[in-house]
Write a structure and sequence with these properties.
- Pfam families: EF-hand_6, EF-hand_7.
- InterPro entries: EF-hand-dom_pair, EF_Hand_1_Ca_BS, EF_hand_dom, Peflin/Sorcin_CaBP.
- Its main location: membrane.
- This protein is mainly α and about 180 residues long.
- It folds into two domains: about 80 residues, Orthogonal Bundle (Recoverin, domain 1); about 90 residues, Orthogonal Bundle (Recoverin, domain 1), CATH 1.10.238.
- About 60% of the residues lie in helices and about 0% in strands.
- The chain has eight helices and two strands; from the N terminus they run H-E-H-H-E-H-H-H-H-H.
- A two-stranded antiparallel ribbon has the order 1-2.
- Helix 2 crosses helix 3, helix 3 packs across helix 7 and helix 7 crosses helix 8.
Length: about 180
């Protein structure tokens, strides 16, 4: 059939291929099988779930063709940004590239924090680096927690006082 109004025909065609069970929706499992990093690894479950939740207007745990089309545009934008920061064109983001990316995005983060992210999200190797899926995940979570912090940091001083429960509430509502 033809693409619905407002849906790119290529996105519609890909939607039909990804919708393995022909339900008219894409699940986390179906999305994971459709998305690849530059090293041919599939996107991780956490990133797929974050993205599905972002475009799932009905809170059903899956997206329709319109959500999928918007998700593809979203991934395309992140991929362009990723390639811009992947200065050596290796297909992954190294420690120094990650530091530069954060700086250019306006985050003033220590090398120790970038190292912590690499230890948490990079594939184990002698030269750890971040694939596209993890880059999207890190940036989405960083943006979300920064937004939550800014809501509390009304004077924009870079510090806030939070109760433990306020902190947990910020984390649960933004990250899970």
């Amino acid at each position: 059939g033809n693409a619905p109004p407002g849906v790119d025909p290529e996105a519609f065609s890909w939607f039909q291929a990804v919708d393995a069970d022909c339900s008219g929706y894409i699940s986390v499992k179906e999305l994971k099988q459709a998305l690849l990093n530059s090293n041919w690894s599939t996107f991780n479950d956490e990133t797929c779930l974050l993205m599905i939740n972002m475009f799932d207007k009905t809170r059903s745990g899956r997206i329709d063709v319109y959500g999928f089309s918007a998700l593809l545009r979203f991934i395309h934008q992140w991929k362009n940004l990723f390639q811009q920061y992947d200065r050596d064109q290796s297909g992954s983001i190294s420690f120094s590239e990650l530091q530069q990316a954060f700086s250019q995005m306006g985050y003033n983060l220590s090398p120790q924090f970038s190292q912590l992210l690499l230890a948490r999200y990079a594939q184990r190797s002698s030269n750890p680096s971040i694939q596209l899926d993890r880059f999207i995940q890190i940036c989405m979570q960083l943006q979300s927690t920064t937004d939550a912090f800014r809501e509390k940091d009304t004077g924009l001083v870079g510090n806030v006082r939070l109760s433990y429960e306020d902190f947990l509430t910020m984390v649960v509502t933004r990250m899970m």
